[in-house]
Design brief:
Order of helices and strands: HHEEEEEEEEE
Strand content: over 45%
Helix content: under 10%
Number of domains: 1
Number of strands: 9
CATH superfamily: Carboxypeptidase-like, regulatory domain
Distance between the termini: 27 Å
Largest sheet: 5 strands, mixed
């Protein structure tokens, strides 16, 4: 994340309202999780007060994973029996020339959320690409 965003008033306000931390793990596979997808481009952001705040922009490793993306979340109040309010993030995944796939992730303080991204073969022709299945 660039320093302009880190120093912005909107980002600081978002952090103040979301002082907790949750973790996001990305798992990208093809062929019913038999083949990890190396190099899947992943962008994680949230919308806050009509502005998009980016938190992560990177690629899966050779095991098809991004193991630990730390994200701000609303603080969990253990003394309160009311269900915690999630912080909502958008996860956009793209691979080569394929259409982007978007997921909505609910993040909670102290919780690790795993987002699985599965691809299936797009056809039997040589040179055919992979297509998405969410």
């Amino acid at each position: 994340m660039n320093s302009d965003i880190l120093n912005s008033e909107i980002y600081q306000k978002f952090l103040k309202e979301n002082p907790g931390k949750g973790n996001l793990k990305i798992r990208a596979y093809a062929a019913s999780e038999a083949l990890p997808i190396n190099g899947l481009h992943v962008v994680v952001s949230t919308s806050f007060e009509n502005q998009v705040i980016p938190f992560f922009d990177g690629y899966t490793d050779t095991s098809g994973m991004i193991p630990n993306i730390s994200l701000p979340a609303a603080k969990l109040d253990l003394d309160n029996l009311i269900a915690p309010v999630p912080t909502i993030y958008s996860v956009v995944a793209s691979f080569d020339s394929l259409k982007e796939q978007q997921f909505t992730v609910q993040m909670y303080d102290g919780v690790c959320v795993v987002q699985n991204i599965n691809y299936i073969p797009g056809g039997m022709n040589s040179g055919s690409s992979l297509s998405y299945r969410s």
